[in-house]
């Protein structure tokens, strides 16, 4: 099923274009599907290995610096030279600053990489997101769209602590239920992510109307969001393998290459719908990136 992970996402995007008003109706429930994705990610964790991984602050710190500083700056520089509309640039940079996608541990595990490192990057990036995003956006654009940090922080808290605790309880005390749910791991991720993308992409299409947008600008944005997935992944993978073993390098590279752009799309649809175009288009890149990873051969497992 992982080999065709991107197909339901592409279908969700097409359906979002066809039925935008249905998407708008279900968009308030987006947090439910994000919660499901986070809970499902926790069920696959080796919690003993996860506890040991929490001491690897150096690897996590490098991942976070690349995630929140170096690659967003690179994408900002590319965007200001390639895209003329500042609202598009704003949305693209916001998307590049989003936390790691909740399916990163799933794809890390699929590749035989260090899923616990990916899960730690998901948690830490979501905790830092409410602080980093407004700060960096203000430095780069002299504006953060007056994004209120408190609701964003509360949102991130709901999507980190609660599903993490719930997944730990199920894994620790309900092993049979955990095993049963884990057998549908890919299907749960695909279903939850597809519905989430349908609601957000359809809402963006309904509020903005893609047919009225400048074609050249949209093509530039598409190229940049594909770089945000594929380009970041391959560049990070190349350099990280000079420093870490294949498992760690692959997990960090996968995490850097997939951002939880649903957060940017959801926030910008409220504050500045036109800026939400870039994170909405990023769902298209995700569909191809997830399919690419799903078709790759697993790396050899090594011990730390």
Protein described:
The chain has 304 residues and is mainly alpha-helical. The chain is 77% helix and 0% strand. The chain has 16 helices and no strands. Helix 6 packs antiparallel against helix 15. It is globular and about 50 Å long. The two termini are 30 Å apart.
Computed structural class: mainly alpha
Q: Which shape, going by the Cα principal axes?
A: globular
- Secondary-structure element order, N to C: HHHHHHHHHHHHHHHH
Largest sheet: none
Average pLDDT confidence is 88
What fraction of residues sit in β-strands?
under 5%
Estimated helix fraction:
over 70%
User: Total helix count?
Assistant: 16
Low-confidence stretches: none
Q: What Rg is obtained from the alpha carbons, in whole angstroms? A: 18 Å
N-to-C span: 30 Å
Based on DSSP secondary structure assignment, what is the total number of beta strands? Answer: 0
Task: Pick out its properties.
about 300 residues, mainly alpha, globular
């Amino acid at each position: 099923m992982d080999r065709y992970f991107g197909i339901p996402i592409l279908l969700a995007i097409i359906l979002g274009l066809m039925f935008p008003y249905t998407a708008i109706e279900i968009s308030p429930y987006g947090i439910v599907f994000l919660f499901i994705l986070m809970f499902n990610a926790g069920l696959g964790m080796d919690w003993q290995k996860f506890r040991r991984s929490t001491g690897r602050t150096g690897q996590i710190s490098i991942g976070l610096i690349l995630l929140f500083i170096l690659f967003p700056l690179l994408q900002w520089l590319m965007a200001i030279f390639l895209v003329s509309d500042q609202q598009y640039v704003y949305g693209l940079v916001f998307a590049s600053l989003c936390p790691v996608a909740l399916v990163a541990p799933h794809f890390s595990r699929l590749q035989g990489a260090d899923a616990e490192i990916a899960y730690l990057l998901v948690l830490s990036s979501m905790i830092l997101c409410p602080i980093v995003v407004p700060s960096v956006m203000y430095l780069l654009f002299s504006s953060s769209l007056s994004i209120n940090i408190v609701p964003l922080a509360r949102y991130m808290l709901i999507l980190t602590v609660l599903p993490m605790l719930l997944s730990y309880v199920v894994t620790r005390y309900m092993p049979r239920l955990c095993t049963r749910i884990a057998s549908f791991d890919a299907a749960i991720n695909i279903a939850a992510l597809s519905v989430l993308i349908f609601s957000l992409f359809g809402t963006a299409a309904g509020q903005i109307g893609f047919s009225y947008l400048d074609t050249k600008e949209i093509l530039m944005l598409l190229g940049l969001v594909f770089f945000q997935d594929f380009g970041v992944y391959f560049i990070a993978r190349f350099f990280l393998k000079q420093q870490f073993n294949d498992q760690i390098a692959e997990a960090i590279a996968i995490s850097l290459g997939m951002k939880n752009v649903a957060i940017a799309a959801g926030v910008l649809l409220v504050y500045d719908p036109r800026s939400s175009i870039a994170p909405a288009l990023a769902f298209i890149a995700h569909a191809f990136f997830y399919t690419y990873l799903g078709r790759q051969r697993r790396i050899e497992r090594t011990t730390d």
